[in-house]
Amino acid sequence: MLARTHQNLIWTRQRQVNQLRSALREFFPAALVAFGTDLAHHDALAVLTKAPTPDMARRLSISQIRAALRRGGRQLKLDRRAHQIQTALLTDQLAAPDLIVDAFATTTAALVPIISTLNDQIGQVEARLVHRLDQHPDAELILSLPGLGHVLGARVLAEFGDAPNRYKDAKARRNYAGTSPITIASGTSRCSYWRSRPQWGPSSGWGPSHVPWIPVGLRVPPRVSTPAAAGGLVVFPRVSMAVRDAPTVTTTSRP
Description:
By secondary structure, the chain is mainly alpha-helical. It folds into 2 domains: 2-130, no CATH class; 150-243, no CATH class. Helix content is 58%, strand content 8%. It has helices at residues 2-27, 29-35, 42-50, 54-58, 62-72, 78-89, 98-135, 139-143, 150-160, 170-177, 200-210, 227-230; strands at 182-186, 189-193, 232-236, 239-243. Helix 1 (2-27) runs antiparallel to helix 7. The longest helix has 38 residues, at 98-135. It is elongated and about 65 Å long.
């Protein structure tokens, strides 16, 4: 439950960030130059809270930006970051009509505190999630696996469970995760698909770090970079299993 809640909060925050980025692109592109796509960062939220419009941002002094960054939580390289932000905010941009600016500024002022609150809540849930994982009897084993930290380890444990005899073999686990290829052949064409399930999320996050290389001659698409797909030895709590090589066919996703 905590793992799903944590992941859902992150997805919710990203939706709000996407809305904020879309709004800034229409009337305040200098903010995107200053902060890029990381609009959930405390630096971006602190400055946008202080100056949600281009005119207000251009009037900010270095001391005002530095104070906003300090309130947002930054402690290191304040002067350097303040100069970078001011330089970006002073870049030339096309001006939108006043009514458009006012509407988008209201949207920005509404989204920024929502994202800030989500940041706080994600931090609190993550701290609770880490605490609960540390109390689990298999925590040491899970955290010893390459590529698994507290958050991703908790997701893997939550999605697959800790019952020692729950899965008969590697194929049963892959079927449950939805990573087993489904091959459809018609005439001379042959395609493989896989199902989209909640268990796919932890597996896809774990795969790139667990399997940093792909053997020559093995064609694995970007979304099939999990241990179950790329082959190798996968060890779960009290369950060890050898995973067979992935099929050498081009695959795509389909619900």
